[in-house]
Amino acid sequence: MKVLLASAEAFPFAKVGGLADVLGSLPQALRRNGVDARVIIPGYGFIDHLDYGIEPLLSFDFHHRMGVNEVKLFHCLYEGIRFYLLQSPPYFGLEGEVYSHWDWDMERFIYLNQALMAALAHLEARGGWRPDVLHVNDWHTSLLPFLIREHGGEGWRALATVISIHNIAYQGKDAGGFLWQAGIHGRHHPDLSEFGLTDNLLAIGIAYSDMVSTVSPRYAVEIQYAYAGYELAPLIEKRAADLRGILNGLDVDKWDPASDQTLVAKFDTANAAELRPINKRHLQSFARLPLRSDVPLVGIVSRLAAQKGFDLALPALRNILARRDAQVVVLGAGEARLEQAFWQLDQDFADKARALLQFDAALAQQIYAGCDIFLMPSHFEPCGIGQMMAMRYGALPLARETGGLADTVVNYDNGDADAGTGFLFHWQEPGAVEGTLDWAFDVFARRPDAWRRMQRRGMRTDFSWSQSAAKYIALYERACAKAGARRMNTD
């Protein structure tokens, strides 16, 4: 089976969020299962071609409603995966970051879909390679299933399409004017018309794809309801029979505390009790906090955004630091109001809290390996990677029971830890966060054996891509069957 994954991001070339991590890891897992998986992304101007051995593959003039642009397709092998990078200035090839302002992003990503469609034809004609499945991701590439079905002609009927929703909050709304400008008409799918979604890019992809997936089983259920799926919930519900929730995985070879070079003390389940505390002391020292093994250390590594639930966590942390012996280390950047609030927490509790308002990959690993409790109070979380990283590195997640957090964290049984890998709360209230922190602190202080059992269980949990890759292959096979039936019905 040949699969082409199309995305705005892919690690290591262009990364803003978790989308890039999936596109960097899933293709390798698919390839280990016999799938010829390849990836195509924009060839952003900031990508260093020398660093990755990126070479020219082909070029062509692309005629579209706004004029004629040269399209250059580059390629390289990275860790055994073929990556294609598409450049076509001024849309792609000159920029210094992945995303820009809304109106320009709408125009250039709509253009990307059209240019990718043309590039597929040239790749087959001149490179001899054509995918059986086109797997698009989020709104940035979600026009491709529509273009293939409605504008591709007879030669494209056999191409199966799959769309993955990584975060339904980002949809590419109000695209009607940009689509008209690009000459993209005919979005008359009855479901789009019924729900008033003909100008919503993500909705177009959902309606026209053979199969739909999202990044955790729980999130696949949640987005069928308005509180999580927003205005797309009725459309998602209509596609429920074709919807699959497949949990994101971790690159367990890369993220391994037994071999992680960023740690001052590497460890595994056999020696974590002796060696992991060295990482805690190092983290406390780096954060200029008292070196105390008896105090629970809460870690946060996150984009500081409203979705992440810090409006719930900040009041809870303030209250608990005022009345309990505890420490907090925060690593992240984002919304100015949240950065200010965490900075103020740092100032008001200088001997207990430290806010490091930046992104630092190595420091993130040290927090996973050094904190006792990893806090993720998200209002919604399609999958989440932080809780899986925390468990792999011996920290116990404290998280809201939603999306992928509910699928990956098993709540402590409040006993001898015959079950449990962390602590869960449900209500979206600061009191729920505070009460769960109190619970976790008490277990840390009074039930060390139960704590260590949960640590070991979390570290042993299989978060590799192997199981998820098999589910994606089944998804692709189902999409191919649907595409085959569609072709037969139109012949």
Written overview of the protein:
By secondary structure, this protein is an alpha/beta fold. The chain has 2 domains: 2-249 and 466-490, 3-Layer(aba) Sandwich (Rossmann fold), CATH 3.40.50.2000; 272-460, Rossmann fold. The chain has 19 helices and 15 strands. The chain has helices at residues 18-32, 49-52, 102-127, 144-151, 176-181, 190-194, 201-208, 217-222, 226-229, 233-238, 272-286, 310-323, 336-348, 361-370, 386-392, 403-408, 430-446, 448-460, 466-490, and strands at 2-6, 36-42, 55-64, 67-78, 81-87, 133-137, 160-165, 211-214, 243-245, 297-301, 327-331, 353-356, 373-376, 396-400, 423-425. The strands form 2 sheets. It has a 9-stranded mixed sheet with strand order 3-4-5-2-1-6-7-8-9, sandwiched between helices. The chain has a 6-stranded parallel sheet with strand order 12-11-10-13-14-15, sandwiched between helices. Helix 1 links the parallel strand 1 and strand 2. Helix 12 (310-323) packs across helix 17 and helix 15 (386-392) packs across helix 18. The longest helix is centred in the N-terminal third of the chain and has 26 residues, at 102-127. The chain is elongated and about 70 Å long. The mean pLDDT is 96.
